[in-house]
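Next comes one such specimen:
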Amino acid sequence: MILFLFAWRLSLPGMSAIQELETAVQLLTQEEFVTFRNWFLEYDARQWDRQFEADVLGGRLDWLAEEVRRESQDGHCTPR
């Protein structure tokens, strides 16, 4: 939240939200950047997990599961 408020204050006419974020991130101290990076990595992982779950529930990965079953049945997989 603070980053967005800070980015808003840096806002210049014609700057996109991405440009504002880039500017704000570049102005972070090393400690603030580490905190932000850790937060962003966690956020990104949660977003990825949600999208993956939605894809699975929506059947968009059924083709991949079927391909794995076929490969296994054909003896193309080795046990660990």
